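Researcher: Here's a chain I'd like modeled. Treat it as a single chain, no partners, no ligands.
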Amino acid sequence: MNAPSPLRVGTTGDYRPLTWRDPDTGRFSGRDIGMVSAFAAAQGRKPAFIATTWAAMLDDLAAGRFEMAVGGISRTPDRAEAALLSDTIETTGKVAVVRRGEQERYRTMEDIDREGVRVVENRGGTNERFGLERIRHAEMIIVPDNHEPFDFLRGKKADVMFTDSVEADYLERQKSGLCAANTSAPFTHVDKVFLFGKDQRVLQQDFNRWLVTHHRA
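Model: Modeled as a single isolated chain. Structure tokens:
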């Protein structure tokens, strides 16, 4: 009998604590990585993680590079049109990440969106979209991947990054020198989901059933 095929899973590996690719070993870890690994095991399959980017994720999924995508993915209309979405895994919201000690300077959007403030975001995700939609007066800096904005903040090459509270909370717990300015009042409320190829309806339904009994128990 042939062994079941691996479950091909796309992920960016740049969104702690949900997905992370170790630059030395290439191995993936994180909360969403653990969840999809447990789901794959329940299916009698092994996960095969495939690196993608936020900008390329939907195209890679449509091209069949992987069957599903995971790792801090927000529910958006364009993703709902291009892919099948799982039920909601968790709800988070956009907050402003700043250098520790500067929280009081950037509590509100009015504090942030003014001349002299530099906002940095990674290309291709909902962080970039949120910044471009909200920022009119501050300077917007767009960088290629989700690692760089934090270096820009710590290096004082930028002042603010918008991201989801789940990532901001992780940064604060890791004593990274960064923290959220407005965790008690996020600017949005966002559902996090997994994506499935349009031809993966059975896989999507299997995952949603598994989610009810294993993740929400």
